[in-house]
TrEMBL record, chain A:
High-level lineage: Eukaryota, Sar, Stramenopiles, Ochrophyta, Bacillariophyta
The protein, known as: Clathrin/coatomer adaptor adaptin-like N-terminal domain-containing protein
InterPro entries with a match to the protein in the record: AP3_complex_dsu, ARM-like, ARM-type_fold, Clathrin/coatomer_adapt-like_N
Species of provenance: Discostella pseudostelligera
Subcellular location: Endomembrane system
Entry keywords, A to Z: Membrane, Protein transport, Repeat, Transmembrane, Transmembrane helix, Transport
From TrEMBL, chain B:
Low complexity bias (residue ranges): 86-96
Keyword Ribonucleoprotein among record annotations: no
Provenance organism: Discostella pseudostelligera
Subcellular localization, as worded in the UniProt entry: Endomembrane system
Domain annotation AP complex mu/sigma subunit: ranges: 1-72, 113-183
Entry keyword annotation includes Protein transport: yes
Gene Ontology cellular component list: endomembrane system
Region annotation (Disordered) ranges: 86-109
Biased composition (Gly residues): 97-106
GO biological process entries: intracellular protein transport
UniProt keyword terms in alphabetical order: Membrane, Protein transport, Transport
Major subcellular location class: membrane
Family the entry assigns: Belongs to the adaptor complexes small subunit family.
Protein name: AP complex subunit sigma
Amino acid sequence: MVFEKTLTDLVTGIRSHKRDTALYISQNIAEIKNELQSPDFFTKSNALQKLTFLQMMGYSIQWAAFAAVEVMSSPRFALKRIGYLAACQGLDQPEKSPVVLLTTNLLKKELRGATVGGSGENIYHAGLAINCISNIVTEDLGMELLPDLLHLLKHPSPYVRKKALLCLYKVFLKYPRGLRLSFDAIKVCLEDSHPSVVSCAVNVITELSDKNPKNYLPLAPAFFKLLTSSANNWMLIKVVKLLGSLVPEEPRLARKLLEPLCNIVKSTHAKSLLYEAVFAITLCLQYVKKANGTQPSNTPEVVELCVTTLRGFISDPDQNLKYLGLVGFGSLLQSQPKVLHSQSDCRGLILKCLSDDDITIRSRALSLLQFVTTQRNLVDLINQLLGHVEFASGEYRCDLVQEIIRMCSSNKYELVMDFAWYVDVLLILAGVRGVKSQGEAISKQWMDVAWRVLPVRSYAVRRSLEVLVCRGLLGMEGSDAGSSGGTTEEKDAIDRYIIPEVLPAAAWIVGEYSHLIPESLESNEGLDPRYDATSKGPYHALIQSLTSPTDAAGVNPLPMTTQAVFVQNAMKVFAAACERSHRAQANNGINLGKKFECTDDELHACVGTLMRNLVIFYESPDVEVKERAFTAHQLLLSMDLPRDLTLATTASVASKCRLASPMLTYLLVPEPMKPISAKAQKRKLAEGPPSPISIQEWEKDVDWGAFWFLNEETQWFDREGNAKGSVESICFTKQHPTTAMSNLSLGADTVEGSMGSQLRGVLREMATLDKACGGVDTKSAFSNLPSSNSQRGGDPFYLSSPAAHSARLLDSGVEGVAKDGADSAATRFGSIKLDSGGESDECYSGEKAKKKKKKRSTKAHHIVGSDDEDDNIINMSRPKRGYVSKELKNLALVDLTTPLGEDDVMPRNEHYVVPERQTEPKGSTGKTKKKKSSNKNKSSKSKNTIAVGDLLAFDSPLINLAGTRANDFNVESSNNNPINSAFDDLLGLEMPHPPVNASTNTAMVPIAEVVGVESNVMKSKEKKPKKDKHKAFTPSLARSRRAHAGVGTSGANSSRGRMQMQWMLHHDNDDDDDAHSSTLPSSNKLLSLVSSGANDGDEGKALVRNEIAALESAFLHMSNNHHITNNCVAANTMNDDDNRQSPSAASSTSSSSSSSLLSRFQPLLGLYEVKSVITNNPKENPVGGKWTRSNGVAQKLFTTRATFQHLLPFNATGQSSLQLSSSSSPSTSPLHLSSPVAEAVNVVSLDALNGKFRITIVLRGDATPLTLEERSERNTKNQSTTILSSTTVPILLSNLAVRAYFDPPRIYFGKRRQRRRYNRNRQGGAEASGDGGVHGSSSEYSYFPLQLGPASSVILDTTYYDNAVRIGLGGTSGTRFVFASTDKVEANEYEALLKLPYVKKYKCVGMLGLILAASLNVAFPDKLLLGRLCTLRFMGNAAAITARWSMWRLVLGTIFRLAGGALAAMSGMAMLAIIFSSGGIERGSNNMNSRRQNRGEGEMVAGKNDA
Amino acid sequence: MISFILMVNKQGQTRLSSYYEWLDMQERVALESEIIRKCMSRSELQCSFVQYRGYKVIYRRYASLFFIVGTKTDVDLRKSIASSSAKKKPSSSSSDSGGGGGGGKQGRYDKAYVENHENELGLLEFIHCLVETMDRWAGSICELDIMYQLEQVHFLLDEMVMNGYVVETNKSNILRPIDLMDRESKKNEGMFR
């Protein structure tokens, strides 16, 4: 294990493998994977540590999650820390990670560990756990751990309190319900004595109040107090922030806050707090306005203070402060937009920031600019900014452009004095590359200016014309290369880049105001239109540009929407050209003095270009473009123009154009839009739509009779109107009936008569006749201009044609129906316009709604109320508004203002309570028993079933329900299964019995319980083939396996299982065949783990430890539930006498002691074998003391045969009372405050020489329950004594804790009985004890009993028990003992042994003393007076005399002496040993508080405990 | 809240990273490299705040090591609250200007509100405090200290910041448990190796 790389090696390695780092790391990861397999915790944690480093370098380590969890469970803090770190850093998303579930119990244990108080190390353990929780919490985990976390809020150590508090926020995020339940506890923390805890509470509440501020308004006074009294800057920052977020909810607070905040500003030296306070003031200022509209009197003062402070920030050389100052100003200006106007120096500072190196600062300053600008400096500023635009890049460039537009457009262009300048600015911006995203804004502005600002309109037209024509030239360059004799200037212009998004705007302006073309050209003499030689004039050049074939199908075609706009506007331009020519002719050729007249040539060229190019456009794949081009083309044809223009003379073409001019104008050139004031528009809206069309009319349902065809079965619809195919395949698209120049509808009039209402007619017509008239129907030219329809629809500035005009048109429209040909077309187009007449807004929205309705209805074919429609829209738009992550939203929804309801309770883990069953009459009991014995196999089988059934119910998350469910299951199964119903009687029969003789083979099943159950089924199947039944069980088994898989984590399961098991085990006594068939799943698992020897390694220990933890936590809940305890206890006592086979049952115990105590401990009684010992300190050896210590003498000579700890009813051995009264130990008797409830007998049996010698050590004691005071005292002491030990969890004693007062240990030296005599060996030389034999009953041995050592006592707790297993907990050391109930023969040996008369210590010592004296005498015959007198000396002399004459004399003498010396030495040592011996007890004193005792505590008494 | 804390050397290698909200591994790597690039491209003269992908990043350089703290707030949530409140009282000014004036105002308001969510100066102070604490812990802290004692540094950091909030700024309070732990774990160290 020493050869693995440590983290240091890894880091060094990575640094030295600069070239092939990836390779090196992948090798290492492979190594790490191996190391993670190791059972050794150190290796594992080392590997994890390396992984954590790699994770930081960007390698995913999710695959090691399980290892992390394992290491987390290590008892050593140093290792545990590594595990937790890895878990925090490297786990998969908690919701997805499979291992998070596994940590539940571990975390819970850690949290509970801290609850004892004091400041022991365990608070750091808890700290780790809490930290981890905040990283990996999920909803389930949160629900599970919330109670424990809340408990920690009252922990004496602030360290724990603050961590728990902060963790709660994360828990709430995942488990919002928890907030309501625990908010009171958080509030309490605000008054905590420790400032850091208060600060954390503020942190949490600040964060929470972000989600839903109004919940925390009631806390405002508390925070206000903190604000004025606290001196902790960190916390003040948070408090200020929090109050700032409350202000919008409660404006009164804003006024109150101003003063204290100002005080802070004036007094604090911390810049961060200063800034925070100023910022909060700026927030408050937005809300200080009183209800009557006045500002508090101190506002100017406060504002001044803010400005001064912020100015200080901005002028600071520190960039950070500069930045913050700008941010602060941004907030201040929200409420005091004018403040900078009086601060010219501030303005200068801000402008300076604009040219700062730092882009962050620049963009900050940029956002302030709009507050700095005035009419006077606007031009200057913008020009500067335009300069910036050139050099800026990326995002910032866009920001700049956006800001320029915003500055100019703000407040209806209040700052712009010269709009021509603004148009130029816009054009410059339109030529900037890389700001495509702003194209839309630019084009909007451009159009806006053009139609709002009359004086600049012609200028705008001119610039648009330039843009288009230049572009057109660019487009035609390919075909007409060289033909354009442009100047260099021209070339520059051609090369100019224009954001494509701006083109539609230019086209629209040119088209809409085409009548201004000549004027614009004239008024700007200097600028010649730069159209090339192929164009005959400005109109022609425009038309060429707008219908350039390369736009439609070139290498880089324009967007379809732009093409559509182009086509439409080309026609408008053409109409303008015709009109111009027409008017010129009307004036009889008199030159109007205008320079730019439209000549015949030009008209001819225009027509030619249009005829040629429109054809190309109507090949377009886009419907819109196609339709418009087609309509336009048809329109031209309808003018009687020849298809081949070459056949017609220029003059004839021109004259035809002139002839058609009025119609064209009428069709294409709209009534000019005029701005009206907002007030007038409002009035208009208030009046509502003019009669006769009322709102009600609009709201009326449409007569769907018009849609007769929908009832026909068609290609797309069946008779019911259900769509067969996609509704979208029918072209209803893009109808905008109310645009000023929109041209809807032929069919409106045809349907009109039958409908009565013209508008409704229009609507229907749109639906029904769309296809029919599609070819003629010209769609709105603007439908794709972002600003056109919607703008007009929603913009109160615009009204379309006056109503009177509309009325006229209406008439003509109606008449027009009768006519045909081109003229009628004109009137038809007009008819819609009229509808849109006076109430464009209303019409528009109304129609829109109806259209939607119609669309939907085509699908559903029934009428849908418009209310629904609205809802629908809202619903659909909501999700778009911004995605709010689920958890935050949930948290925001938590409402703390309402009191807790009854259903708002803390989640609790409760255990399933076996419902009380009515006891059946005795008679039936006998009957069923009989039945059962006659059907052993049957009943065992049904036992399985029931076990399974119970397991099924485990899955249920609702524990309360589980009870009924289990019942149901039984009922159900009894219905289905005769065997079960037979057994059902038993179910009703009785409750659990004390498991004294429960067959414990179960405990020995070496494999996991599931396998056990399954294999058992198989076994019984072989025995009695009832295949169908078994089959039926199989699925259940599969499920039970799943339930078991969760056992480690879900304590609830095991405990309930335990209850079930109790009665089952009881029945096992009767049919022992299948005794091991059913066992409690969880404890069984533990047993199998333990007995398979898994607990040898560290890893195994960890497994066992986890298992124990699971059982314990289950039990903990369980024992809190008195019903359960009482239930089973009552049952136990009831059946006590009948079923107890154990020898200990002979004496009736219940009378001797208080019945309640007795009954509590009763279920624990039994014979138990020590199966496993889990110590926190590897050096500890709590079981058997020195006898079993692995490095002790005893273990070298002996092998441990068995260790038991039996719990017998009080005085079962008949020795306790005697012992109690006669005990000489002063420390025990006075302490017997409460009466003993049981007798504990610890037995350690050792063998040597293959059983020839045997030492059995018996420690008998009386267990008395600890009183409450003792327990709490103990708990506190444990806390303090474990500060520096690596104990993970302090020991918390339960009400099952007892103090066992042990008699001095009795040591029985036994040897196998060959010669029938007691072998009187000395105990000191243990090696010399009796000889032994085959393993057998105790009677084969002869014993020499000796009572040695002091009396002792220990505190023991029982943390879990069931029929097969009992888990003990050393009261001081925290050692866990696993006891398995046993029925081995050896287990009963103690009875005989205890009855043997034993040799008291003083007798033994006396005896040894004699021997010592004698042997000394022999050894030193001359030196001891006593020796001379005694017989032995004589014997020595005699020997010497006899040998006097021979060589032997010397030899013999020496031998005698040596022998005597040896004997003396041995007996002396033995005597000393006996005198000072502790009898194997390692502890020297009874002092419970000493650490020594702590270590040796359990001593031979393996944890004995329990009563 | 603090979303992440990074320590990065001049070569752009991460020396420590701690995330307080869950991020995918690829996201982490991408985020780190971009933020690091951004930070390193800035000169001493520029301010210590960078905005990136919705994070407000506050960084500071000590010798060759960048300390980077990223904070984030629930922008989406705020927006929805702001827009819902805006919906309640339709502002009279937003509809009458042709440009994006009204919308822009609302947007800026959100921005300002969100941006101040964590106090930048406070976080700078926190970074300084962190460095001082580490300095006291390791004598004079250097990059290698952090690399080789990654776990301890993490622990130290955990003592100061928990799930994104500053818990403790008192140096001795921070270091006490660490010293305790170190001593304790060293004591046990000899036993198994």
